[in-house]
Amino acid sequence: MRIVIADDAVLLREGLVRLLTERDHQVLAAVGDGDALVTAVAQHRPDVSIVDVRMPPSHTDEGLRAAVEARRRVPRTPILVLSQYVEVSYAEDLLATGAGIGYLLKDRVAAIGEFLDALERVAGGGTVLDPEVIAQLFARRRRDDPLRNLTPREREVLALMAEGHSNTAIARTLVVSDGAVEKHVRNIFTKLDLPPDTEQHRRVRAVLTYLRT
Fold first, then answer.
1. Among 8, 68, 112, 175, which has the minimal tally of Cβ within 10 Å of its Cβ?
2. What pLDDT does residue 91 have?
3. What is the rounded distance in angstroms from the CA atom of residue 104 to the CA atom of residue 189?
4. What is the rounded distance in angstroms from the CA atom of residue 16 to the CA atom of residue 36?
5. Distance (Å, rounded) from C-alpha 122 to C-alpha 77?
6. CB of 44 within 8 A of CB of 2?
7. What pLDDT is recorded for position 181?
8. How much is the CA Rg of the chain, to the nearest whole Å?
9. What pLDDT score does 177 carry?
């Protein structure tokens, strides 16, 4: 495989270069910051890039941001992200760019066979996610879900509202009273933090929130 490596830790970067070249892979560039990664990907069009999340200048999520930019400039270019910790800020943006993405914690590199297998799968267009990454992404999604406090019945009512049904039609569909539906609708407005306004306006805003999620 033709590979680009981006990691500001010289020892790890050189270790990866040695590991990969010993297995007959070609390292096209080994760089230490996000801008250099984007340039290298655009120039070399590698089979896969290995990218550290935390790089200069702030050592927060520059690697992830650079990976997103590299995928924007060279669509579908395969990228395997390595990180000491899970950084969810741009992880979802990167995953949303499509197949050929991997996100592993650096501890996995110690299992050389598993690491090389993951690299080959990403290069082949697959998606490889560390179990801890999956757990934290789902946890964040649950926290950010505006519908998380709705009961199953309230979700049903909101779904029917989104289909354009009136309260009477919803009551008929769910085989409950009009009063029960009105109570559910009021609860939905409260839980979605939709303050008193015209009833129709709140209804539209609730439906838009449902559709966005």
1. 175
2. 75
3. 40
4. 17
5. 10
6. yes
7. 94
8. 23
9. 94
The candidate with the shortest Cα–Cα distance to 153, out of 161, 164, 145, is: 161
Cβ neighbors of 119 (< 8 A, separation 6 or more) are 1, 3, 48, 50, 80, 102
* Contacts of 206 by beta carbon, 8 Å cutoff, 6+ apart: 158, 161, 188, 189, 192, 194
Contact 61, 90 (CB under 8 A): yes
Q: Does the pTM exceed 0.85?
A: no
Separation in Å, CA 10 to CA 32, 33, 107, 158:
8, 11, 17, 54
First-residue to last-residue Cα distance in the chain: 39
Neighbour order of strands in the sheet with 2-6: 26-31, 2-6, 48-52, 79-83, 101-105, 127-129
In the structure, what pLDDT confidence band is assigned to residue 147 with cuts at 50, 70 and 90? confident
Stronger pLDDT, 196 or 76, i.e. the higher one:
76
Residue in 63, 122, 66, 115 with CA at minimum distance from that of residue 87: 63
Give the pLDDT band (50/70/90) at residue 71: very high
For residue 60, how many other CB atoms are within 10 A of its CB?
14
